Amino acid sequence: MGQFILTGSATPRDNLTSHSGTGRIARMIMRPMSLFESQESNGSVSLKELFDGKTEIAAKSNLTIEQIAHALCRGGWPAAVTSGKQSSRIAMNYVDAIINFDVQHVDGVEKDPERVRILFQSLARNISTMATSKTIMEDMQVKQASITDKTLNTYLNALRRLFVIEDIPAWQPSLRSKTAIRTANKRQFVDPSIATAALRTNEKGILRDFETFGFLFESLCTRDLRVYSQVIDSGIFHYRDKSELECDLIIKLNDGRWAPVEVKMGNIQIEKAAANLIKLSKKVDAEKMNQPSFLMLLTAGQVAYRRTDGVLVVPIGCLKD
Question: Where are the domains of the chain?
């Protein structure tokens, strides 16, 4: 066991027959590097330790807003992390290669490169939202790139097979009340730099638009939490119900433990976000599910601490698996 680690990138034909490797090969998803792996997070707060009950935290992140913006636009691509000033070009080149080459070959269906580019831009504008296919189609139509629902699904499936997009599924817990839970996925790329590359913007551009920066920051946090949660055998979800109570991210371990996470850029939103986390924890039926292991606010700030109400405030620059 563990004798070999085989890595690679390929686009096998759909009709290609190959041995599944069942019983001999374990498959895992390879993701872009997290901030801890790129040594930008100091790793003073461990996700695993939080789930193990070690929630008395006190730490400090050295990441500034400007550094977060840079890391977000650069992305977690290994070559970009080590390449210096031209690192943002790597994400742009990657997106261009997908649009003009990779997406054409992944399923054998010819696609209009300009339409794919506009789809990228629409997904980037709707990142970290529950935008429907209808919203995406209308957005593309504004750019004079009309598309049918069937064709849109073909394009989206191709991008999923290329590991470009990875939407966040909805979490459906047992609730005390009979509140209807919305089941739509949340739109997300595997790395936030894909969104900034599609929008042809950079760190200076997003620093001038804090609303867009907020959605992209959530994408960055999603990427890192997916990396960290994969290590501890868990998955990432989101929650929203008919009463509009929502939670940006839910970490759910395979053993039943779970924790809600709200992603917030600044301190102004912390009080409301903490109240939402507490409200959600009380809404879940504790008799059918476990109580949350912890409640977390993941921020772009610099100080990690535990609030008097028990909610943990953790800078993304402090987190690790």
Answer: 45-320
